[in-house]
Backbone:
């Protein structure tokens, strides 16, 4: 049976994060559920001031069922500490809730594959439900996929780092209007040339500090 084209019909009419997370486990809004181990929903303080949004779960997140627990998550933890943001008081999630990957011709190591626009849009109802539930002051979109999930397919992250933005009015069903900041995905720091990683990490930290400064006091 073909998968549905959107997660919308799977999202319950509730602001309870536990109920949303439970419902997401049976989501078949796109075909990614067919090969992923499980849905990886967001995690963190239910009424966090800051919501951090990445692209999708990676290999370790797919196995653990928790967001940002792999190498990129460890680097994010380090960057948050440097920016004086307590991860335990934030909410961390991804634009896409299932791991998309390819397998090499030889070996069994699953290789990350960037979600397509159709998959990002199909999964977006879950992200919107998290926004309406958590109601953060600030949303930090990490990486192009996360940024385009909420800001539109033509949004260019590099042109808007260090700016206080708002989610476009296209999402008229949203009952929240947080400030938005954008930055690179932590995994891009790890993938970069070794000689550039310190500068890239410092840029990530600077963006996170900027986002923290947007929180309503």
Residues:
């Amino acid at each position: 049976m073909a998968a549905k084209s959107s997660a919308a019909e799977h999202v319950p009419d509730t602001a309870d994060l536990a109920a949303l997370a439970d419902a997401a486990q049976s989501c078949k809004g796109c075909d990614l559920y067919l090969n992923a181990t499980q849905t990886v929903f967001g995690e963190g303080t239910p009424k966090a001031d800051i919501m951090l949004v990445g692209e999708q779960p990676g290999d370790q997140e797919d196995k653990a069922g928790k967001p940002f627990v792999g190498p990129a998550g460890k680097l994010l933890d380090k960057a948050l500490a440097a920016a004086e943001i307590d991860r335990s008081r934030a909410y961390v999630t991804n634009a896409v809730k299932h791991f998309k990957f390819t397998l090499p011709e030889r070996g069994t190591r699953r290789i990350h594959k960037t979600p397509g626009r159709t998959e990002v849009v199909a999964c977006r109802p879950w992200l919107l439900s998290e926004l309406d539930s958590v109601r953060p002051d600030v949303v930090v979109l990490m990486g192009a996929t996360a940024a385009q999930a909420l800001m539109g397919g033509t949004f260019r992250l590099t042109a808007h780092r260090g700016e206080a933005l708002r989610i476009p009015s296209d999402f008229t069903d949203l009952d929240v209007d947080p400030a938005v900041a954008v930055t690179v995905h932590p995994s891009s720091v790890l993938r970069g040339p070794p000689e550039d990683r310190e500068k890239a990490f410092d840029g990530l930290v600077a963006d996170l500090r900027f986002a923290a400064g947007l929180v309503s006091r």
